[in-house]
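As promised in the previous annual report, we have extended the structural survey to additional targets. Below is the entry for UNC-50 family protein.
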Amino acid sequence: MPRQHGSSSNFGGTLPSNRNEGLRMPRFFKRLFKFPQMDFEMAIWEMTSLIIAPKKVFRSIYYHKQTKNTWHRPDPSFTYLLSFFLLLTSIAWGLAYADGFSRVLRITLVFIFVHFIGLSLLVSTLAYFLVGRLLGPGVPGLPGRRRQGLFVQPGEGEQLEFGYCFDVSIRAFFPVWVFLYVIQFLLMPIIAKNYFVSIFFGNSLYLLAFGYYSVITFLGYNALPFLHHTELLLSPVIILTILWFASLFGFNLPKHLAPVLWAGAGLRKDV
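The corresponding C-alpha cell record, generated without further manual editing, is:
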C-alpha cells in the first residue's frame, strides 16, 4: 500500500527548546481526569471510521506530528468511551449468562481491565519492542534496527513511541468489541446451533473481528514513514482465513470458543 507522505524528520514542525518538553508520556497522565479537554466527538468519529474506512483514522496523525511533535495523541477520550461501552455490554452479558451481582461485577472488571486494557498493554508492549526494532530503518530491503526509548527526546531521529503503539492497540480492539461483544451477544441463541448456516455466520464473526484487528494494526504502523515492510503485519489475515475455512467443517466457534474466552470473567459454561 503506497504512502502519500514524505520522510522528513520533523514534517515542518519545530523541535522543543527545552529537553523536558520532549517527555510526552506525562502529558497523557496529566489529562486522565481533565474531561472538559477531551475530544469525545473525535473519538466517536474514529469509532465510526474504524468500521467503514479505517485508513482515515490515521491520516490526521501528520497534522498532529507537525503541531505537537509527537505521533502519540495524549487524549484518553477513546479509552474512556470504549471502556464505557464495555461496561454496558458486560452488564448485558452478566444479566444473560451469570448468576448474582458479584459475578456481573467480576465480568465488568474482566472485560474492561483484562480483555481491553490488559490485552492492549500487552500487544502494544510487544509491538513497541518488536515492530520498532525489526521494521525500523536499516539496510535497504531488509528489516532494520533502531534505538528506542519510552519517551521522545528532542533532537533525536524519529522513533516508535510506546504511546502510539497503545493508540493503535486500543483502536484495533474496537472492531473486536463490535463483532464479539455486541453482535455475537445478540445472535448467540442462533449462531450457537450446529447448523451449517449458524457455523458459517458465527465463525465469520471471529474472522471479521481478528481480521479487522490485523488490518487496523497494519494501517497504524504503515502510517509511520520510518517503518518498512509493514505488510508483514497482514500475515495473520492469511492464517485466520485458513483457520476459518477449516472450521466450517463442523467446529462452531461461538459454541465452543466463546465459553472458554468468557469463563475467566465468571460466565456460565452453558453460554
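The two ends are 41 Å apart (CA to CA). The chain is about 60% helix and 0% strand. These points will be discussed at the next consortium meeting with the crystallography subgroup.
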